[in-house]
Automatic annotation (TrEMBL):
GO cellular component, one term: cytoplasm
Classification via NCBIfam families: HdlasePehA
An MF annotation (GO) of this entry: sulfuric ester hydrolase activity
Organism: Oceanibaculum indicum P24
Annotated protein name in UniProt: Sulfatase
Keywords: Hydrolase, Metal-binding
Domain Sulfatase N-terminal: 5-381
Length: 513
């Protein structure tokens, strides 16, 4: 490599795409992220291809739609034959390192059934060199906390319980978590990332810097727990009652009746759907505080790059695996088909002088998580595999406009088969492979197709909150047909194509790109 070109890929967890100051959020400041956006480009309509974490990160890092990589849920293996951005970067001489996790379950044809990775939600994707993995059950982080003098409880996760927990106090609270801010997981991830960058010396480096936050438990350490007044937080976008919400679709009813608060609060009891508006606002205040904490520590990373003279040698991408319902539609978590789960942040700062004309711009065209891999590979000068479903974002950064052929709609998927912590199949009367939905969404309409349940159609102009299903209305039959055909066209165009560019000819093997 003649010129030093570093890549810093920052991947936060469960961060909604609408919670960025440059996109008009009324409370969140995140000044370091805002400063990064002022020197880069913010993609306002950026969507993950799948939820939850495992399939989302599979799409993010392989550049494949879920229908192609088929790691369709947490705990479902990723086929070992698929390449990823780290493996491809190795062809250019990089040794991609990772702080964090990818929630990847290994291919059971490649490893023994007794492998301990089959007893957790997922581990690290092949191709990355771990420089800050917290282990299969956060043991590295908890060990670091104890080594810094904090006495861990018998259940280490209790560090995220609120301080001075009152009798009967459950779920969302304004109290800080028990762990002090200087020992938070956000500090641990940041320190591991800085250790790696300092040790990279003068060779080009590629770091996936992952953060667990603002993933639940939704309890922030002091002083971040009290940065926002719950009364100032936006109210949830939801129907007047859980029962009214549940009428929209059988799958939605299942999650309203099964998602428990304990998955989001260490002291949670009962269903997430039963949270009143005050609790939702408090949850949002804690969630925003966790975001501000990440911003403070990203400031440390950015300042080190500047102080060490690496700021203008480094491509910086900040993105996420998936979003969070955060009480919208009476839901918690990342699931279903609503934008809160699928709309995610994407900010890219290209240090090259050719990007000077686009700094601070906001792109409104649809972009997708599969666009990450071709963007990074083009920037480092490595060819992108034909199988990749995404497209490089560099034209937006250097030309300031979308290519004429750029997508005019976005696609994403959700597989809701049984896993050990959620079992929709029996209540819905579906087989494992029937538990699937796919979405096509543009400026005007959102169509949700289910493998074995009724479809949904929303008019996004008149019903941006997506409360009124028009799929069964005869007046909209033509729209349903049109968007179903668009989805079929999408699937036909993007069917797995690793080898379909090759062909035998009388002159020998031919390759079309």
């Amino acid at each position: 490599m003649s010129k030093r070109k570093n890549v810093l890929l920052i991947v936060v967890d469960q961060w909604r795409g609408d919670t960025l100051p440059m996109l008009g959020h009324p409370l969140i400041k995140t000044p370091n992220i805002a400063a990064l956006a002022a020197e880069g480009v913010t993609f306002a309509r950026h969507y993950t291809q799948a939820v939850p974490c495992g399939p989302a990160r599979a799409s993010l890092l392989t550049g494949l739609y879920m229908m192609n990589h088929r790691a369709v849920q947490n705990t479902i293996p990723l086929d070992a034959r698929h390449t990823n951005v780290a493996k491809e970067a190795r062809k250019k001489g990089y040794d991609p390192a990772i702080v964090g996790y990818t929630t990847t379950t290994p291919d059971p044809r490649e490893v023994a059934a007794e492998d301990p990775r089959f007893k957790v939600l997922g581990d690290l994707m092949d191709g990355w060199r771990p420089v800050g993995s917290w282990g299969l059950k956060m043991e590295a982080y908890f060990s670091w906390v104890a080594a810094n003098g904090y006495k861990l409880p018998d259940n280490p996760w209790d560090i995220w319980l609120p301080q001075d927990l009152a009798p009967g106090e459950i779920g969302a609270t304004r109290k800080p978590s028990r762990i002090p801010a200087e020992l938070s997981d956000t500090v641990w991830f940041t320190d591991r990332g800085l250790d790696y960058i300092r040790g990279a010396n003068k060779k080009p480096w590629f770091l996936h810097l992952g953060y667990w936050r603002p993933h639940p438990p939704f309890a922030a350490p002091a002083p971040y727990h009290d940065m926002f007044d719950p009364a100032d937080c936006p109210p949830p976008v939801r129907a007047a009652s859980v029962e009214e919400e549940a009428k929209q679709h059988p799958m939605l009813r299942f999650y309203l009746e099964s998602v428990k608060r304990k998955s989001f609060f260490e002291n949670g009891e009962g269903l997430g759907a039963d949270m009143d508006e005050g609790e939702v606002r408090q949850m949002r205040a804690s969630y925003y505080g966790l975001m501000e904490e990440i911003d403070v520590h990203l400031g440390r990373v950015f300042q080190h790059l500047k102080d060490s003279g690496q700021w203008d040698d480094t491509l910086i991408i900040l993105t996420c695996d998936h979003g969070e319902q955060l009480g919208d539609h009476h839901l918690l978590g990342k699931l279903g088909y609503f934008d809160g789960s699928f709309h995610i942040p994407m900010i890219v700062r290209d240090p090259d002088a050719s990007a000077n004309g686009t700094r601070g711009q906001i792109v409104r065209q649809f972009t997708e998580s599969v666009d990450l891999m071709p963007t990074v590979l083009e920037w480092i000068g490595q060819d992108c595999p034909r199988a990749c479903d995404g497209h490089s974002l560099l034209p937006f950064l250097r030309d300031g406009g979308a290519p004429d052929t750029w997508r005019r709609e976005v696609h994403y998927e959700f597989d809701f088969r049984n896993v050990f912590y959620s079992k929709p199949e029996e209540p819905l009367g579906l087989t494992m492979d029937q538990c699937a939905l796919a979405v096509v969404q543009d400026e005007n309409w959102k169509y949700v197709h289910f493998a074995a349940l009724p479809p949904l159609l929303f008019d996004l102009k008149s019903d941006p909150g997506q409360f009124h299903n028009l799929a069964e209305d005869p007046a909209h039959a033509a729209t349903v047909r049109d968007y179903a055909q668009r989805m079929l066209n999408w699937r036909l165009t993007h069917a797995e194509r690793t080898l379909t560019g090759y062909a035998a000819t009388p002159e020998g093997l031919m390759l079309r790109l």
